[in-house]
Design brief:
Shape: globular
Oligomer: single chain
Number of helices: 4
Number of domains: 1
Structural class: alpha+beta
CATH superfamily: Gcn5-related N-acetyltransferase (GNAT)
Helix content: 25-40%
């Protein structure tokens, strides 16, 4: 879907999720989305305030991210047990502009 969006001429692709949903936040980073912040009290869900974590990638980010996704999916990069040799997040990290501070364990060490 990301490829379609950028091929169709969109300049920006966004991922928004409940700020309490850590698996969704990790998925956004793994796919190469850059963390843009948390919109506090963005909406009311089931009578409670909900904060929304916001991630995005731009068409310029996609140039490198597309190569990272393609490399990750190459059949030659899959070992005998059917697993990729490298994690997708290892390949997308160089193309992210900002990291989610709530996911410190996934941020590269300086």
């Amino acid at each position: 879907m990301m490829r379609w969006a950028f091929d169709a001429g969109y300049r920006r692709y966004e991922w928004k999720c409940n700020a309490l949903n850590a698996p969704s936040r990790r998925a956004a980073q793994r796919l190469g989305f850059s963390f843009e912040g948390v919109f506090r009290q963005m909406m009311i869900v089931k009578g409670r305030n909900r904060d929304t974590a916001w991630f995005a990638m731009t068409e310029l980010d996609w140039v490198g991210l597309a190569r990272a996704h393609e490399k990750w999916q190459e059949p030659t990069k899959i070992n005998g047990q059917g697993k990729q040799e490298k994690r997708l997040s290892d390949l997308t990290t160089p193309y992210r502009c900002a990291f989610d501070p709530s996911l410190q364990e996934t941020n590269p060490t300086p």
